From TrEMBL:
This is Aromatic compound monooxygenase YhjG. The lineage of its organism: Bacteria, Bacillati, Bacillota, Bacilli, Bacillales. Its cofactor is FAD. InterPro entries: FAD-bd, FAD/NAD-bd_sf, RIFMO-like. NCBIfam families: PRK08244.1 (NF006092).
Amino acid sequence: MMDYETVIIGGGPVGLMLASELALAGVKTCVLERLEQPMPYSKALTLHPRTLELFEMRGVLERFASRGKKTSSGHFSMLDTRLDFSSLDTSCPYTLLLPQTETEQLLEERARSLGAEVLRGAEALTVTQNEEGVQTIFKDREGSVRTLSSLFAVGADGAGSVVRKQAGIAFPGTDSTVTAALGDVKLLSPPPSGVLSLCTKEGGVMIVPLSPDRYRVVLISPYRTQTPKDAPVTEEELKTDLIRMCGTDFGLNEPTWMSRFGNASRQAKQYRSGRLFLAGDAAHIHFPAGGQGLNVGLQDAMNLGWKLAATVGGSAPSWLLDSYHAERHRVAEGLLRNTEAQTRLMDFTKAGLHLRSMVSDMLAFPDVNRFVAGQISAIDVGYEADQNMPPHRLNGKRLPDVELRLPDGSMERLYNCLHNGAYVLLSLKQGADNDHIPFNGLHTVCASLAEPREEWRDVHTVLVRPDGHAAWAVDAAGPDAAEVIQSGIRRWLPIASRV
Ligand SMILES: Cc1cc2nc3c(=O)[nH]c(=O)nc-3n(C[C@H](O)[C@H](O)[C@H](O)COP(=O)(O)OP(=O)(O)OC[C@H]3O[C@@H](n4cnc5c(N)ncnc54)[C@H](O)[C@@H]3O)c2cc1C
């Protein structure tokens, strides 16, 4: 008898998100977090549109949105032309400014309320596996060494991941070549709009409001890019650099947190080794440009949660768990590419500034802007189509929160149907030809689209995954739609049977 079905090492945002997903599905879950108390400061400040969509899918978006500040633009490498999220095809066309501490607090509340245990002051020492399960040895808050057994364990334990090392998973990539500094400070004379993004031959500066009188100041000084990451940042350094770049230090004082960060860029070779998995910073690190790391980590957790839950619950096909690596490794390859490109663009030489100006001009073209905004917001995320299903343009795609008209005339949104984290069989074929429903253990929604959408034209049925992607779709015009639907359900949900 195992102590838990899943143990998550690391109670940062990614571990807590995963714990919520597993607990929602009824998986007995324990999170081990070495910190006694949550961090008082926030690395990340932004939640991007795809993450907000995931929250909407679980019916918790409002909890986050009510505590943050919506803004419809983002940045790519601090270029002058902002990314316009308002033009994206999403019900969340904005970024939410919300400090990471608050995101973590809300995620921890949710994980606990759904039944996950979160042990604080618990540091994992070793994680080993055999055919039956995983043994995690950890030191508890009293200093006693204890062991937990589980069917699976997930390393959401950040860049220095013990789980990754214990699993022998390589973490190839490049060391830091550039460092930047930040300070969370008071500004007596802040910039007029409260926000500043400026790049000159003296370097780059970004100022973002944290509260009515506190600000995050980020400085990329060409004179300090070789400063080691662990060299302390001083108030004097922040002031000197601000004066050099902006002609004023904005009355900077009372720093509460000052830190240096670098552009080390690495990705775990495998996200799975047997019963062990990696998610978030344990799986990928990069320069925090464009505010993506936490977001992509939460999206990893969303991808892994329902697959792990289905496996624990015995309803998953044998191939499902491996699709976690296949789908999410490719996404983080793109993340590393775009953050490396952004870092390269942070070149404050004369030629570098010309290049920045050209790329910034290109971002003014709406299609280019939408393309880059799609990457940074992760709205462009799509997975490979299931090769074992007949091709369809929606297969593997992220589905937007389309509005549905139900048979009784009432309206419903697709994401509302996903609140309980289960698959949805969406039948858009009206009339008598829907004899493939219902299936045991599969929530079926019969509806039509309230607004026509080109890529959904003629769609008969879509199997919507718990993370809002299309497992597969079939057109009304296609031959043997009923046969494809039944084989698709057998492939993805082997235990669902016709009523
Ligand atoms: C300056 C800066 C700004 C950033 N801004 C953004 C942004 O705006 N948007 C964005 O999306 N991302 C941003 N990021 C990145 C983001 O902060 C990280 O990607 C995110 O914290 C990763 O979450 P995680 O849960 O994977 O790892 P972590 O946040 O590192 O959490 C890992 C947790 O595991 C615990 N742990 C580690 N080892 C053990 C162990 N052996 N036993 C038990 N517990 C353990 C740690 O205490 C920690 O709580 C920024 C990063 C930096 C440095």
